[in-house]
Amino acid sequence: MLNSPASSLPPRAAHRFRCAELMEYSEQHLAKTAQFGPGADAMFATRLLQDVSLYQTWAHSHELLMRSVTASASRTRQALQLKRVTFLTLHRKAPFEYLRDRRVTGLPRRILVRELFGAQDYTRCILREHVAFLTAACSFICADSLCEQRLHDQAFCRAMEHYYDAYTEYYRAFCDSLLAAQMGELAPLQPLLPYLRYRLKIIREHMLAGAPQQSEFTELQALYAASGDTQKLRTLRQE
Is residue 6 pLDDT above 70, yes or no? Predict the structure, then answer.
């Protein structure tokens, strides 16, 4: 995880966050991530910083998120909301992340977009989701770093790394199931989706309650491995 520009300084006494403070940190962190961050994070940050319009879109949406944090009356509630923002941005970038990582194209891509977002203009929907993916990815990078460098909650950040993997596996199983249903088939994890959603909900509650050690990530990973869910889906017939 990339350190903040001020990570070498000792932790400051707890105080209520201000929106301007969180925005300044986020902007500086993105600039540093573009230069020194890990591959994917650096690519997202660089893409954002090089596109004025995209950056303005991100700045507006990120400020709304940071205002939701600073609207709370106490530092404790602010910390809780910041953690919720971390989950929110991780979840928001999942749809386009699935399309990219699963390399879904052609008819399957159109079917999945329709299933996820309803009957909309396909091209506009894809463009909107790409922007949402980039902005959410950059906000996640910032929120995750704020939890580490401003909340100093190392246990939450370690658990978030596992949650990221678990949620990615869940969302893959969810979308795979949507596509399999279009072929009249049953994806390996489809019967377990309600249970997996429930387990992720419980894990989030543990993490937000300050007890991430109670989160059973190993149980989820065992289920994914046993199901063989990493296998590729049969390609839908193109029209």
Answer: no
